[in-house]
Structures are given as structure tokens and as C-alpha cells.
Design brief:
Order of helices and strands: HHHH
Structural class: mainly alpha
Radius of gyration: 33 Å
Number of strands: 0
Distance between the termini: 100 Å
Number of domains: 1
Helix content: over 70%
Largest sheet: none
Number of helices: 4
Strand content: under 5%
């Protein structure tokens, strides 16, 4: 039974004509491919975040109106509370 070639060194020893063809790492293509993948992932994340904020704007407006209408008693801010305490 023949053993399969496992390493690049063995492959290049068996097939010397392919030795002039560099690997992805040696040619620098691997770095370019990884940079391109990183760039595309960043663009996708940016686009996703933008759409999430665009879609959330109407929902946030509706929630704000709903909370204002269903609130039992209007909220008093700290400034008006402090002024009311001073007058009392």
C-alpha cells in the first residue's frame, strides 16, 4: 500500500516541476485574501448596524408615545422637585 504525501516538502521532492510555483503564503496572496475577508466582514457589520438603527427609529418613537400615554402620572424632573421642596 502506498503512503499518501502529507507535507509540502515531500510533494515538491516528488514533483520538482511544481517547485517554481510558490504557495499562497510565499506569494503573499494569503495576506491579501485575509485582508479582503476582514474588510468585507467590517463592511457587513457596519451595514447591519446602520440598518438596525434605521429600523429602530420608528419603533423607538412609537414606544415613547405609548409610554407617555399609558403612564399613570406625569414624571417630575429633579429641578421641579427641588423647587417644590424649597417652597414647602
Amino acid at each position: 500500500m502506498y503512503r499518501t504525501t502529507t507535507t509540502l516538502h515531500e510533494y515538491r521532492a516528488l514533483y520538482p516541476d511544481s517547485a517554481t510555483i510558490p504557495t499562497l503564503t510565499q506569494s503573499g496572496l494569503l495576506g491579501l485574501l485575509l485582508n479582503r475577508q476582514r474588510y468585507k466582514a467590517a463592511c457587513l457589520a457596519r451595514r447591519h448596524a446602520m440598518w438596525r438603527s434605521v429600523c429602530a427609529a420608528p419603533r423607538n418613537a412609537c414606544v415613547g408615545i405609548w409610554r407617555a400615554l399609558t403612564m399613570s402620572e406625569p414624571r417630575r424632573d429633579r429641578i421641579s422637585e427641588a423647587a417644590a421642596q424649597r417652597q414647602a
